[in-house]
Amino acid sequence: MALNLVRNSKVFFTTNVDTSTGVIKASSSSAFSSSNTFEIQVLDGFTFSQNLNNETVTINEAGVTPTRGQRSFNTSLAPVDFSFSTYIRPKNATSKITAEESVLWNALLSASNIAAATSIGAVSGVTVSATGLVTIAGTALTGTLPTVGSYIVLSGVTSTTPVGYDKYVNSVGKVVDSAVGGVTVQLINYNPAAITATSLVTASTIKYATAAWSESNATYSQATSGLSDKNQLQTFGMLFLVDQVLYAVDNCALNQVTIDFGIDQIATAQWTGQATVLRQFASGVTASAGGFANGTSTDVGSSGTYQVKTTDAAYITNKLSTVDLKAVRAIGTNVVAGDTYTVPLTGGSITINNNINYITPANLGIVNTPVTYYTGTRAISGNMTAYLRTGTTGETGELLKDMLAETANAIEPMFALSINIGGSAPATGSSNRVVLEMPSVSIGVPTVDVQQVVSTSIAFTAQGYVPNATAANNTFDLTKASDLLVRYYAA
């Protein structure tokens, strides 16, 4: 009898699945490869399991000798639950900034696999309206243009004065017109105050991508919620190799990630997801140096390979993290647009939740299995903790004072929140850090925690918004997917 040890385990993310069923494929004709299967370094405590639901029939009758038995039936399989944690580790790959966990961000916020950006063609002109309507013209804009209504990530459009959330690079937008000779895109994530009267320059080509994770910029890469308004997200599978037993989790959906800001910790992300089926895929399997061994054509493929884990990417410590909290709109008479508050973190967290729900039939006489799932509300919320500092403009004490003074007026207080995990941006912009940008959050009145050093906790909820040429005129809009940008920088 062999005991399975967690230290001998490996975890893999794979897109080598049947596109209609989500079932993991692996055979001599569709083997795992380094382009579809990726090793994920996880921390201790990962889980994967599937439970049975049952129904018990009981008898309740009177009499001297009543029947007192019961009978139990298995009725359905619950969705598979899996969870694991990863470190957040940006890596400079020379031509792009990447990360091992990029496939997870993409699965959380997109319906498409990560793919190279598509070139639109030679550009002859770009114009931008005050409301972020970008028109791209050129003589060779043909064939590969994105379709009207699709959400895309543009790259190649840059500003001569790079001010704003995207600096117009990797800008998320919705295509409102697409025809030979021109493409018009309504930007979602950008700084509207910087767009008016902005002189634009263009690269020789402009590219677009349809996945949430974009690596087309040598300065940073990003994940965006702008492409996440989908009933179903990217189809993928998970492989858990425990010693030499390989377990497959089919038709996965990534439901949630939580990032903690423990002050004396390395930045981590806790991922949770669900799936339809858990099965033992193969036994006697080993994985090392990017290749599976002891596999056959009916399990891991006789020549199955994978993308090995990244071991030389830098770790990020939360000790250096900073927070920028800026009022977008005026709140009563105490808070005016542009007021900035400093929040030196002592802790906190942010959670992005897809609120996925699986659907299971209820047929009699069989054990029913989940057939599919649908996304629910995209909920992005969190809290930050800091010491309560008073007596200085822009400190947490002033934020508490201002919010208390406006509790009767602050129906929808709009702030822009930028959490810089690993430190604020240096002059060169190339330090190892991850930035969570939420251009429109609503915050509550900070709560007070009386300890030896009095602390405060600030709860926030990110929401979609409609930008305006004047930022102070931005409005919340729950139909917009403009609530989150995650940027990875690496030196």
CATH topology of the largest domain: Pnp Oxidase, Chain A
Q: Class of the largest domain, according to the CATH hierarchy?
A: Mainly Beta
Tally of helical segments: 2
Low-confidence stretches: 161-166
* Rounded Rg: 25 Å
Mean pLDDT: 86
Distance between the termini: 48 Å
Largest sheet: 19 strands, antiparallel
The portion of residues forming beta strands comes to 35-45%
Number of strands: 36
Alpha-beta content class = mainly beta
Q: How many separate domains?
A: 3
The level of helicity is under 10%
Report on this structure.
It is a single chain. This protein folds into three domains: 8-46 and 78-108 and 231-293, Pnp Oxidase, Chain A, CATH 2.30.110; 116-210, Elongation Factor Tu (Ef-tu), domain 3, CATH 2.40.30; 318-357 and 365-489, Roll (Pnp Oxidase, Chain A). The protein is built from two helices and 36 strands. It has helices at residues 102-109, 396-405; strands at residues 10-14, 37-40, 47-49, 52-58, 70-77, 80-87, 90-92, 97-99, 118-122, 125-128, 133-137, 151-159, 171-179, 182-187, 200-209, 213-214, 220-224, 236-242, 245-260, 268-275, 277-283, 286-288, 291-293, 322-327, 340-342, 345-353, 357-359, 372-374, 379-387, 415-421, 433-443, 447-449, 455-462, 465-466, 475-476, 485-489. The protein has a 19-stranded antiparallel sheet that branches. A seven-stranded antiparallel sheet has the order 9-15-12-13-14-11-10, with no helix packed on it. The longest helix has 10 residues, at 396-405. The two termini are 48 Å apart. The model is unreliable at 161-166 (pLDDT under 50).
